[in-house]
Specification:
- This protein folds into three domains: about 80 residues, Four Helix Bundle (Hemerythrin (Met), subunit A), CATH 1.20.120.140; about 200 residues, Rossmann fold, CATH 3.40.50; about 120 residues, Signal recognition particle, SRP54 subunit, M-domain (434 Repressor (Amino-terminal Domain), Orthogonal Bundle).
- The chain contains 19 helices and eight strands.
């Protein structure tokens, strides 16, 4: 997502590098490239027009100080305008002290039922709530069964009453939640292939009968510009409080994310970035803008890591790195933690300058990590703590025990020592990140 558009924008900005000052002539080519990149990414034409005009006006209205390079100033302007398009501020999900009611709506095929499960998982793990999934999609075949299966896989309760009126289902679900000390109700409503009067009347009926804290529209990001019509169609009947963009990990140009907030004034609250039940991320406009411009998504990495590594462990690891006491035992523990984060290449894509370094197209064979793990596990606890004792005879034993070659054992040890040196330099502040 966004890679092609981001590469085009970055390339356009590079052409400004080395110029003494920003003028209409020397940014004209860059602005044309940016305009084309946004249009090809399926960003709404009116949004593109405003974006380009705003960047141009602000760029020409600034004096470039001697200690600031024109391209650095220009990329800051582009980033600021992207952030503005994406909504500027993060808009959190409503979480009441008491019971909170959230209603999910959307067209069929948008990923609504799966998103309901992801939301429930997020609320339990991140907000420490006790969610209840309520099955109100009484039309789509197997929709109720799908939600039940999701609830079972997550160990989250699902309330069902078959194919009766959704208002009656929700009334009984609220009573069930009260009796079972559940404090966050997620209603999975029926979708349609297109917006129709029956669908809207049903949703309006729910909104009239209950105090809905969040009415969230689930949108397939691959819809393109038609998503704007869908959002406005729902918002004309309901009081939408936010949207969730799904399938951002698919073959989507991403333009809808740059158009939705600006044209509808409805905030994007989450994005779905994988099919897994933990594949739902809170939407931070600044982080998204930085990711588009290949500045990385450190916030996204932190979000993934905080589920695996607690704060005390992280501080302990940092102290070891600073003192140079980080050993292969620590490395093995971190390796196991990294495996829990999912495919390593997905993490590498989120690093600053990932596209520039070619990390966005890298493929890492999971077997390689398994080989490294096997080599370390073939060492004694003492050897892991003191890798400097690993001489020739010990390496031969480790190679045989792990089913790998002595060359692979040597390569791992050399890479580990280099990594230790680099970690110490970073922790001592002697090295700087690319951004």
């Amino acid at each position: 997502m966004f890679e092609y558009m981001g590469d085009r924008i970055s390339k356009a900005i590079k052409n400004i590098r080395g110029m003494g000052r920003i003028t209409e002539d020397n940014i004209s080519d860059a602005m044309r490239e940016i305009r084309l990149a946004l249009l090809e990414a399926d960003v709404n034409y009116q949004v593109v027009k405003e974006f380009v005009q705003n960047v141009k006006e602000k760029a020409l209205g600034l004096d470039v100080e001697k200690n600031i390079k024109p391209d650095e100033l220009f990329i800051k302007l582009v980033k600021d305008e992207l952030v503005k398009l994406l909504g500027e501020d993060y808009v959190p999900l409503t979480v009441n002290n008491g019971t909170t009611i959230l209603m999910l709506c959307g067209l069929q095929g948008s990923g609504k039922t799966t998103t309901a499960g992801k939301l429930a998982n997020f609320l339990r793990n991140k907000k420490h709530k006790k969610p209840l999934l309520v099955a109100c999609d009484i039309y789509r075949p197997a929709a109720i069964e799908q939600l039940e299966q999701i609830g079972k896989s997550l160990n989250i309760p699902v309330f069902t009453k078959g194919k009766i009126n959704p208002v009656e289902i929700i009334k009984e679900a609220l009573e069930y939640a009260k009796n079972n000390d559940l404090d966050y109700i997620i209603i999975d409503t029926a979708g349609r292939l297109q917006i129709d009067e029956d669908l809207m009347n049903e949703l309006k009926d729910i909104e009239t009968n209950f105090k809905i804290d969040e009415a969230i529209l689930v949108i397939d990001a691959m819809m393109g510009q038609d998503a704007i019509n869908v959002i406005n169609g729902f918002n004309n009947t309901l009081k939408l409080t936010g949207t969730i963009l799904t399938k951002l990990d698919g073959n989507t140009k991403g333009g809808v994310a740059l158009s939705v907030r600006h044209l509808t004034n409805i905030p994007i609250k989450f994005v779905g970035d994988s099919e897994k039940m933990d594949g739902l991320r809170e939407f931070y406009p600044v982080a998204m803008a930085e990711r588009i411009l290949d500045m990385g998504d450190i916030l996204g990495i932190a979000s993934k890591v905080e589920d695996i590594i607690n704060e005390d462990e992280a501080k302990e690891e940092m102290q070891k790195m600073k003192k140079g006491n980080y050993d292969l035992e620590d490395f093995l523990k971190n390796l196991k933690q990294i495996k829990k984060l999912g495919p390593l290449e997905n993490i590498l894509k989120m690093l600053p300058g990932a596209r520039k370094m070619g990390l966005n197209n890298i493929n890492i064979d999971p077997k390689q990590m398994a080989h490294v793990e096997a080599i370390i596990l073939s060492m004694t606890p003492y050897e892991r703590k003191h890798p400097d004792v690993l001489k020739a005879s010990r390496k031969v034993r480790i190679a045989k025990g792990s089913g790998r070659s002595v060359e692979e054992v040597n390569r791992l040890l050399n890479q580990f020592m280099e990594m230790k040196k680099m970690m110490k330099q970073f922790s001592n502040g002697n090295m700087k990140l690319p951004y």
